[in-house]
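Hey, resending since the last one bounced:
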Amino acid sequence: MKRVISGVIAIPIVMGIVLYGSPLLFFGFVAAIVLVASHEYFSMISNMGVEGFPVEGGVLCFLLLLGFYLGSQSLLLLAVLLPVILFATWFIRGNDVKVALDPIAYTVLGVFYIAGLGGYFLLIHNLEGGNQMIMFLMLLIWAGDAAAYYVGRNLGKHKLIPSVSPNKTVEGAIANVAGTLLAAFIAKLWFFEEFSLTHCLIVAFICGIIGQFGDFAESLIKRNCRVKDSGSLIPGHGGFLDRIDSLLFAGPAFYCYYQLFLGT
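The structure tokens again:
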């Protein structure tokens, strides 16, 4: 019930911002989610004894998103500056040479994992019909997650990768892909005119698989950090990173497919 109530409250807000918000409002929305997810990430890794640089990491996440928003030259500049900033941060704040690379490496991972992948939603939003594409993509992931959750709980018998995510099943994974395909078909008939039905189904199939890798990637991080959820800000759903883990992988896959096969 908590999951349902949270969804009823959050989904209209997200849809309103995606469909009717200005590019600046959407940038602020993505930045807010990324910064919260970044805080959750650094809280998780601290549980395994790696402090990282959470403040600097959050600033770099914001700057990386700003690079996506402003254009490629800003991204290239940040790519050069990021390691310089983090090494300089360690020289100022660090004192143990034996573990010097740990906070630097984990901070780099967090920045590129959350902001680097999340920034692709800004690129998608800037495309013609981008707001519809993002709505379509989110619908695919939501439908796939819901199908996997309910089929896995009720019919799941065969564990998929129990060492990483004990509750994920083969049946749930198949239901996830089936859910994305069904959602793509319904979306095409209902509102989505940017892609042909063939492309809709191909994108759904790709995102249904890639999105699950995103889920497993976050599960691997949580497993290493010995935590169940990334946070507790969303009742019934855990943290923000728990909600966007599949989208972080599906977004870049969607954008690359568009550029390779549909872009002009």
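The two ends are 45 Å apart (CA to CA).

Sorry for the duplicate.
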